[in-house]
Prior knowledge:
By secondary structure, this protein is of the alpha+beta class. The chain has one domain: Hotdog Thioesterase (Thiol Ester Dehydrase, Chain A, Roll). Helices cover about 30% and strands about 35% of the residues. The strands form 2 sheets. Strands 1-2-6-7-8-5 form a 6-stranded antiparallel beta sheet. The longest helix has 19 residues, at about 70-85.
Amino acid sequence: MNAALNAALDDARAAWRSTGDASALVAHIPYAAWLGLHITRAADGAPVFHLPFRDTLIGNYKLPALHGGVTAGFAENAATLHLLLVQDEPRIPKTVDFSIDYLRSAHAADLQAECTVERLGHRVAQVQVRVIQDDGKEAARRTIALARMHFILYSPEP
């Protein structure tokens, strides 16, 4: 990555920390921008990721249900953005692996994701993602998927 992109990431992270606006950071990840992913703050200040529903995200029109790849892509982007927001990582971290457990179908409605950094070492980080959807029938939040993602962190350049 070049110095200009690193500076842009730093500026975007500073904007999130001061104003809560992460749109500049999302813009640096094309798929996240295409999905329309946006970020708000929870009461404790942690980032909460939102995927607004639109018809082009449906994978099964009979149910209707969101495409599993959209759910996975949303979780993957949430994990990456979470790590960028809560750590002082100078560059977009490199993905090692990603796994997801689908617990139930994602209906045609908005999704949310909550992330936690479970392991943070000098070279590797592990982020867990809980993908949530409000269930209109029960008026309750239900976990629809759980994901885990490992990243290689960049060591400071000599």
